[in-house]
Design a protein that fits this description.
Layout (H helix, E strand, L loop, with lengths): L1 H4 L4 H6 L2 H6 L2 H21 L6 H9 L5 H14 L2 H12 L13 H37 L4 E6 L2 E7 H25 L13 H6 L4 H14 L16 H30 L2 E2 L19 H25 L10 H26 L3 E2 L1 H15 L1 H10 L4 H20 L7 H7 L10 H4 L9 H17 L2 H9 L8
Antiparallel strand pairs: 1-2, 3-4
Length: 484
């Protein structure tokens, strides 16, 4: 019952994937700290510091914390008001041979900041895999409906026709940009390394008796052991909080993409043209039993708005770091970084779930086209009259009058658009009546939309997803299931 007596963030308790929730868990955080302390000790031993094999082996054997160690650490932190030193003490209890060399020469940010960089890199990798799958699913949707005409909207007013598949490519193109931006942020990510209390490496220079080469070797070796290709060349006590800005920017941008996409789906659901998945036992409204609310798309919009705002925290934090550091970043970042990645993770899972169950209603789409297409076809009718020997101005006036009569039927009487019936009934149009069906074929109004879909998928989507990393993700991805 304890879990129900205290607040839990719905990001982890209700929505997020197990992988992302575990990544930012206390168990993984403190395991990572211990791994960093081990990497430091190994590198220091390799470079000649008197660290015993027994110390290294005890550290290796106790990287994971059991419940008792969590309790010890909590007691120590309450006493010392310092989380890192509480865990240094706790680690030393289970690795006594290493107790005197754990954290040797380091400052707290050696574990806290380097661990955050590890978590950020892993989190970005998880997001990239999910984003690749989402792009793949929407690409299949675009291919399937590449040539299904649908009414286009500008200002949410009827415009020229497009196709269902072409509209989907607009979503996919933005998702591809998000894939590029998130991958770039991940691949650019460096390591803080071993820099000391103000970034000067003074403590390590003392440890190695003024040997600058060994200090540089230590930094490089710990970076290598931690799986990074490079360390930031300079730092203060922390890595620059500008890095957090650079990481959260593409996530915020993805939030905008997801919000626009989900909003389009919500509008299409209102039009009854396209709907997100709706399960047989799902309830749309507690009062109105007939309702089929687009709750998945609404959830995406809700969380995407949150995701878009999180970057503001990173900007604010980066802007107020005085000199070599201030601690007013700490509590903020404990919330900001996990929330950003958990939120992006949830949005992607929900997007995948939606993309795998979209339902298209061609007859509803065709009916809406039939209501608007006659007005759009008027110029084609005028051109056909001219080609058959008629006068352009006379044809224009005839169409103008009939169009206004048909509009009156639609707007004032609530009837169907009968413009074409009026054209068929007017003897003036006898020369082209045999062409009317062809002139009104919706497929003749979509321009190059189907070909654009084909080219876009072949030249942009498939190459982007051909990366080995994404191919692995696509090969192992199952269907996305939502907890609630």
């Amino acid at each position: 019952m304890e879990a129900f007596d205290t607040y839990q963030t719905p990001l982890s308790s209700r929505y997020a994937s197990k992988e992302m929730a575990h990544l930012f868990s206390p168990a993984n955080r403190f395991y990572t700290w211990r791994k960093l302390w081990l990497n430091l000790a190994v590198a220091e031993k390799e470079l000649g510091l008197p660290i015993t094999d027994e110390a290294i082996e005890q550290m290796k054997a106790n990287l994971h914390l059991d419940p008792q160690q969590f309790e010890i650490a909590a007691v120590e932190e309450k006493k010392r008001r310092h989380d890192v030193m509480a865990h240094v003490h706790t680690f030393g209890q289970v690795a006594p041979a290493a107790a005197g060399i754990i954290h040797l020469g380091a400052t707290s940010c050696y574990v806290t900041d380097n661990a955050d960089l590890i978590f950020i890199r892993e989190a970005l990798t998880l997001l990239l895999a999910k984003l690749a799958v989402v792009i793949d699913r929407f690409a299949s949707f675009a291919q399937q409906y590449r040539d299904l005409p649908t009414l286009g909207f500008t200002h949410f007013q009827p415009a020229q026709l497009t196709t269902v598949g072409k509209r989907a490519t607009l979503w996919i193109q933005e998702l591809l940009w998000d894939l590029r931006n998130i991958k770039r942020a991940r691949d650019d990510l460096g390591f803080r390394g071993v820099k000391g209390t103000t970034g000067t490496q003074a403590s390590f220079l003392t440890l190695f008796d003024g040997n600058h080469d060994k200090v540089e070797e230590l930094d490089a070796r710990v970076t290598e052991l931690s799986g990074f290709g490079y360390a930031y060349p300079v730092s203060s006590q922390t890595y620059s909080r500008k890095i957090d800005v650079d990481v959260l920017a593409p996530l915020a941008s993805f939030g905008a993409t997801a919000h626009k996409l989900a909003t389009d789906l919500r509008l299409l659901a209102n039009l009854k043209e396209v709907e997100e998945p709706f399960e047989s036992t799902q309830i749309g409204s507690s009062a109105m039993a007939y309702k089929r609310n687009p709750m998945r798309s609404e959830r995406i919009c809700s969380l995407a708005r949150h995701l878009m705002t999180i970057q503001q925290n990173a900007l604010g934090t980066a802007s107020v770091q005085w000199f070599e550091r201030t601690l007013d970043d700490s509590a903020n970042r404990r919330i900001t970084l996990p929330e950003a990645f958990l939120t992006a993770d949830i949005v992607l899972t929900t997007l995948q779930n939606v993309s795998e169950g979209l339902v298209v209603y061609p007859k509803v789409i065709a009916r809406r086209i039939s209501q608007e297409l006659p007005f759009m076809a008027t110029e084609n009718i005028i051109m056909a009259i001219v080609k058959s020997g008629g006068d352009r101005q006379e044809a224009h006036e005839k169409i103008r009058v009939l169009s206004h009569e048909a509009a009156h039927q639609v707007k004032h009487l609530g009837l169907e658009n009968d413009l074409i019936e009026r054209v068929r009934a007017d003897p003036y149009f006898d020369p082209i009546k045999g062409q009317l069906d062809a002139l009104l074929d919706p497929n003749s109004f979509v321009g190059r939309a189907p070909e654009q879909v084909d080219k876009f998928l072949a030249n942009w989507v498939r190459p982007a997803l051909s990366d080995k990393e994404f191919q692995v993700a696509l090969g192992t991805a199952g269907k996305a299931e939502l907890n609630v």
